[in-house]
Design brief:
By secondary structure, this protein is of the alpha/beta class. The protein contains 38 helices and 33 strands.
Length: 1038
């Protein structure tokens, strides 16, 4: 049973209170209780006095109030013998001792922000702990320093009556020193690995002999070689670590004054001198710049702190603390307090020269040289300059076809870890997980096996602790990667695959996480030739289908998805390449098409699919639309909380999104019912299902479809013809990398790279395709469609060449075949099914020319279209707004848009046509609109059929593809930038050719427009227009 409130405290609705109490009246059926307790609810909980919960496993009680709430006496005081996890926050829980006495199987006990009313004496707590042989994590955090301070001393307990906690690995305490001393005097925890102690600022708080004895009786190291000091506005922390060991020890003091914080920490270091004196590397950082004042008290506090670190050789200082540390070390009376220091690393900032100057006296004092280095960034994990280690990847892992997943994995972990501080500053559960990640990253960079072992050990401890602060799925993923990298032994492979499967099927795993997990699972399985390869790919495709259903109409979530399409778009292409390797060509084509449809559904929504339903059963389409709009709203609310990859989820975020996730699941179930009803309608059995090959094959009735499947594993050409099995043309070794390089080079160096690109494309693609066409009996001048994937979406396949011929003019691929592109075979089928014969001349053409783009060139463009004899409906002189254009595209069969285009780097949704209302027509506007009825649209603007930069390169995400996907049967656009004169020159030739082709029955508008484009381009070539300007124009659709 889970109930969480809003981030702002507010009374719980009466219905909610009733439901909670009603559910709690069935304790025999409850195994999880997670409640955000409110004041009105407290009065209703009195009925739970001494009620047993025989199946309860997880109890979590929190509140949003700052000072905490107190449960009614004896509430939740009944027996719970199966209880494994208890967490309270800001809750006074007087019946806790009775509950704990029955919970002998407890694994995690987290008592956080304990108010004064929640006080439990050390003696009572020790008694409760006495039977907890399974306890692995224990948090005892008081909210106020006045939580019943101990009066008098304490008696040393009888050694035979010590409570031993044989499984405890993590202990965290915050509170009064006397309480801690009394508690620890009766406890032994030999296997302890992680200890985090926080003291409130009180007089004589560091009289801690029992804490010292407690530590000495554990298996923790007696000395540490690395320490991190971190200062915030309210506290100072010291974290100790040791290379080659996962153990961590942390101390924290809460107080406001900087010099008092330093003095308190200096006293702690003095008390634990034998532990800190072995530190070789000391890191000092702060959340924000420390106070500017640098008086004698400040220098004295720093000098007191440094005196315990007698063996420090390397000191690293963040920019926020640099001036304080430099001036303190440079003071004459402080010189010599770090006798072993050899290197000083100061984070680069504007004050670095003054810091260097302040350190000159320190450098002059020692007989040995002391070097001062610029530290590029405190968040930079590439400490090559700091620690002298070579960070190049040295892990030896077999790769297939030049593809090494270790390099990709290292980049992902490096990107994830770049937000972590460069030094440890806490011993929280989350910081342990971050340490495990950092250790794995370090292993990938330098190959030290001990770091991998430590990462595995910490991960195992986190899994055993089961604190819920880290979702289990993230720990399983970390395990999977660690075993995958450990060695290529069958046992490690099997463990890695098992962990990937466990993470994928975990009920808490989000859909986006499932996609990433399944992709990594499939990738490693493919490297190892593991039999789980096919199931992994199928799981990934299944998760992708779920994503398209969940996100569908959410434009904000779609933006999130687009940011991660690198992995998502690779999945169907890599699965198809695997199927091609096994000779399953028809399945490979189905997979490519299914993947493209699912990805575009996730990006663009399901409106195009809905258009077919609306024609058959409008009411069902209306129901589907309403449920999907509700999904859009709920997904937009979850978009900021949605987790993709490894970043940790704050507990408050989890509490906030649980109700929304429940509502999301209800909406998804409702939509599934509607989908099944739609699939029962005639002709709609494949609605939101993979399209079978024999249906896809029908799209090739007017000419073959040439698919180019590109991924890191291999690159293949598949030809779909109407009455024959698919034909496979494998490409040469190394072509996948060459294709990526060509696309990148073409985008960055358009004019210089174009001819070379066209030649290479003809050599590797064009020539083999022409030869196969000849073998298949496809005559020259036939209509063909290019169906590119990945980087080929930005390559000019229609103009590959020059092709050797007897003609005086250079010949290119489009001279031999009538070329069009399609963004998906399904879009081509839809365009063909709704295509009309040659238009009725009474139908006008929507001509759009914003006033901001009005020039002599665009005026000529309008004139040449007008002179072609086609009636025009004009949107000019301030009328060319985004809403007017959308309405026009829904009502006109023909459209011509002449304007400027702009883009926002990194945001493909902002591919934009600049209009009159300062609200440009973006790709996002097209996504939000309904079905477009326009049958032919010419976009006379730059980059309408190609990416501006590397963003969007692999997705084929541009305005032409979006409009084609949303119902425009035939599109004409540009792959890159165009000069002003190109619009009028091309339009004159295009519309002249379009009209000259005649109006005989059976001639389709799409075919006419494709032929007209080729004629127009040929005439431009005859005029001597440069190569890059005529290759630029492309045709999409039927």
């Amino acid at each position: 049973m889970r109930y969480v409130g809003s981030p702002c405290p507010s009374p719980v609705a009466t219905g909610d209170e009733d439901n909670i109490i009603a559910a709690l009246q069935h304790p025999n059926r409850i195994n999880i209780i997670q409640l955000t307790v409110t004041t009105p609810l407290l009065e209703r909980l009195t009925t739970l006095a001494h009620v047993p919960f025989p199946k309860l496993v997880h109890l979590e009680l929190t509140t949003q109030t700052e000072t905490g709430l107190t449960l009614p006496s004896k509430c939740f005081g009944g027996a719970a013998p199966l209880l494994r996890i208890i967490r309270t926050a800001n809750i006074g829980f007087s019946a806790l001792p009775q509950l704990l006495l029955s919970a002998s199987n407890l694994v995690s006990l987290q008592l956080e922000a304990i108010p004064n009313t929640g006080y439990i004496s050390p003696e009572a707590l020790t008694t409760c702990l006495s039977t907890m042989t399974c306890l692995t994590a224990f948090h005892l955090l008081f909210l106020f320093p006045t939580s019943h301070p101990m009066s008098g001393g304490y008696q040393r307990p009888d050694p035979e009556r010590y409570v031993v906690l044989p499984a405890l690995k993590y202990f965290a305490f915050q509170g009064f020193c006397g309480y801690l001393e009394h508690l620890l005097s009766g406890i032994r925890t030999p296997p302890l690995k992680y200890i985090d102690i926080t003291f409130f600022n009180q007089a004589a708080i560091f009289d801690t002999p029992q804490l010292l004895l407690f530590i000495c009786r554990t298996d923790m190291p007696r000395s540490y070689d690395e320490a991190g000091v971190f200062l915030s506005g309210t506290d100072i922390s010291l974290t100790l670590t040791r290379q080659g060991s996962p153990h961590r020890m942390g101390f924290r003091v809460r107080c406001m004054s900087l010099d008092w914080r330093l003095s308190c920490m200096a006293e702690i270091c003095d008390k634990f001198f034998f532990i800190v004196s072995g530190v070789k590397q000391l890191d000092i950082g702060a959340y924000s710049s420390l106070p500017i004042a640098q008086d004698d008290m400040d220098h004295l506090s720093w000098s007191q702190f440094f005196r315990s670190f007698t063996n420090v050789e390397r000191l690293r200082v963040a920019k926020e603390a640099a001036s304080h540390v430099a001036y303190a070390l440079g003071k004459e009376e402080n010189i010599g307090i770090l006798p072993g220091v050899l290197e000083l690393h100061v984070e680069e900032h504007n004050g670095f020269p003054s810091v260097q100057k302040a350190l000159i006296p320190l450098q002059r004092h020692y007989n040995h040289p002391i070097t001062v280095h610029r530290w590029k960034s405190i968040n930079d994990h590439q400490y090559a300059a700091a620690d002298g280690h070579d960070r190049s990847t040295s892990v030896s892992t077999p790769s297939i076809n030049r593809y090494d997943p270790i390099l990709v994995l290292e980049k992902d972990f490096r990107d994830n870890c770049k937000h972590l501080c460069g030094y440890p500053h806490s011993v929280t559960i989350q910081s342990l997980f971050q340490q495990a990640q950092s250790l794995l990253l370090s292993f990938m960079q330098n190959g030290r096996a001990q770091e991998l072992d430590n990462s595995l050990e910490i991960s195992q401890d986190l899994l055993t602790m089961d604190t819920k602060e880290i979702p289990r799925v993230k720990i399983h993923i970390l395990f999977a990667f660690s075993f995958a990298l450990r060695s290529q032994e069958p046992g490690n492979m099997a463990k890695s695959v098992s962990m990937f499967e466990t993470a994928f099927h975990d009920e808490s795993t989000t859909t986006t996480e499932k996609i990433g997990i399944a992709w990594w699972w499939a990738t490693f399985a493919r490297v190892w030739s593991h039999p789980s390869m096919a199931p992994a790919y199928r799981s990934a495709l299944s998760a992708l289908q779920s994503l398209s259903s969940e996100i569908g109409f959410s434009t904000r979530s779609s933006r999130v998805s687009i940011g991660h399409l690198g992995t998502i778009s690779r999945i169907p292409l890599e699965y198809a390449s695997y199927q091609i390797e096994r000779g399953q060509l028809e399945l490979a084509i189905e997979t490519i098409e299914q993947g493209k449809t699912l990805i575009w559904s996730a990006i663009y929504g399901l409106r195009p699919l809905l258009g077919r339903v609306r024609d058959v059963y409008p009411y069902l389409a209306y129901q589907f639309f309403n449920v999907s709009k509700a999904l859009e709203a709920i997904n937009d609310s979850l978009a900021t909380h949605r987790v993709i990859g490894f970043p940790l989820r704050a507990r408050e975020e989890l509490d906030d999104i649980v109700p929304a996730q429940k509502h999301l699941r209800r909406l998804l179930r409702s939509r599934q019912v509607i989908i099944r009803q739609i699939q029962d309608l005639p002709g709609l059995g494949n609605f939101m299902k993979p399209i079978p090959y024999h249906t896809l094959q029908d799209a090739a009735s007017q000419g073959p479809i040439v698919i180019i499947n590109h991924c890191s594993w291999r690159c293949d050409i598949l030809i779909v013809s109407h009455h024959s099995p698919p034909s496979l043309i494998p490409t040469s070794e190394g072509f996948p990398e060459l294709a990526t390089a060509l696309a990148t080079y073409l985008i960055n160096n358009n004019k210089r790279a174009l001819l070379f690109t066209l030649k290479e494309l003809y050599k590797h693609v064009g020539e083999p395709v022409i030869q196969r066409f000849q073998e298949m009996g496809v005559p020259p001048q036939s209509r063909i469609w290019w169906y590119p994937t990945s980087v080929f979406c930005s390559l000019p396949l229609h103009s590959m060449g020059p092709i050797p011929s007897t003609s005086r003019q250079s010949q290119f691929f489009s001279d031999f075949y009538l070329c069009s592109y399609t963004s998906a075979i399904g879009a081509l089928i839809d365009a063909g099914s709704h295509i009309r014969s040659i238009w009725n001349y009474s139908t006008s053409l929507l001509f759009v020319n914003p006033s901001g783009h009005f020039s002599s060139h665009t005026k000529n463009e309008r004139i040449v279209v007008w002179e072609s004899g086609i009636p025009l409906t004009l949107l000019i002189d301030g009328q060319a707004t985004s809403q007017a254009i959308i309405r026009g595209l829904q009502r006109r069969l023909l459209a011509h848009i002449s304007c400027d285009s702009i883009s926002v780097p990194g945001d493909s949704f902002c591919a934009t046509l600049r209009l009159d209302d300062n609200a440009p027509l973006t790709l996002l506007d097209v996504v939000r609109t309904g079905i477009l009825t326009t049958k032919l649209a010419v976009l006379s603007a730059s980059h309408t059929a190609g990416p501006y930069k590397m963003e969007g390169l692999e997705e084929g995400l541009h305005l032409v593809s979006a409009m084609h996907y949303h119902g425009v049967s035939s599109m004409v656009g540009t792959m890159w930038g165009m000069v002003d004169d190109d619009g009028s020159s091309f339009s004159e030739e295009f519309y002249k050719a379009l009209l000259s082709l005649g109006a005989e029955d059976g001639v389709r508008l799409g075919e006419k427009s494709a032929e007209a484009l080729r004629v127009a381009v040929q005439n431009l070539r005859n005029r001597g227009v440069p190569l890059e300007r005529w290759v630029n124009w492309v045709h999409y659709g039927a």
